[in-house]
Amino acid sequence: MLTLGIETSCDETAAAVLRDAAVLSNIVSSQIEVHKKYGGVVPELASREHLRNLMPVVREALAAASVGLADIDLVAVTYAPGLIGALLVGVSAAKAIAYARDIPFIGVHHGEAHILAAHLEYPDIGYPYVALLVSGGHTALYHVKGLGDYRLLGQTRDDAAGEAYDKVAKLLDLEYPGGPVLDRLAREGNPGSVKFPRVQLEGFDFSFSGLKTAVRNHVALFKSRDQGLTPPFPVSNVAASFQAAVVDMLVERTMKAVADTGVDRIVIAGGVAANSSLRSKMRERAEERKVRLYLPGMGLCIDNAAMVALAGYLHFERGERSGLDLNPRPTMPL
Ligand code: KG4
Ligand code: ZN
Question: Whose CA is nearest to atom 23 of ligand 1?
């Protein structure tokens, strides 16, 4: 069975083709260059870019999979959550393809797709597991008991981890998106140089806005001493110290979730799962505790359509599908 996956929820226009649960092609066209000069995603520009790029990206995904549109059996698309105008482009295209070809179509939750991405690389994961979903829009821990059975253990009460990276990068005059830039800078800095706060809320909730404010205050202190953000401002030390705080909070909560649920598997998902320090710290801690860690490759951590196609395919296999009256939703809990 061939599934065409479409993803347009934020600033990546993506299409992928799966044969059952195996990836035949996975094409991502990033809009980063368009949004960079504004320091973040401009929703209206994102919609227009999706409109311009989606069909070329779909054609590229079909060509890379050596199939035609006539061979596709199912269309899966992200319909929530995300930027409403951006989602609308993908959902409308998916409906049009399904209607024209008279094939089923299924709407997918973006967060669920991120979590299931790990199954593309490790088809034998099995359930249950603890999933840490960390992206620009989400930071949450789930006890995943099976497909569609996601118990929310905790989530951020303010910024998502990726959002904190992007905001901190902005206040350090660094490029958007901040995650990859800070990750790179952090490797050259001393993570112990600034003692940024680690917020430990009750249960499994996260909070990153206090940390962001601490970085802002630290920067303001430097500026007030008239040193500006040019050297000798130790930007790599600030990056490393900020990253150490984020990673500590994420790892600590995840390991607590593992202890409380008694599961022996962890899945890390979302754009921030591409972070080098998070990956290595999680590996260390998982090894210590003798739990298996499933970290998808970078290409499956960031927004992509292969994960969307897989989520759609797995739900379709269970007899689910969406009607053509499905509307995109900007927010929706998993
Ligand atoms: O999953 P994703 O591509 O889109 C959303 O669904 O949000 O995640 C994007 C987020 C951005 O905030 C970006 O700064 C962050 O992931 N990110 C990283 C890294 N690469 C991307 N954060 C930390 N370290 C990275 N290496
Ligand atoms: Zn995402």
Answer: 179
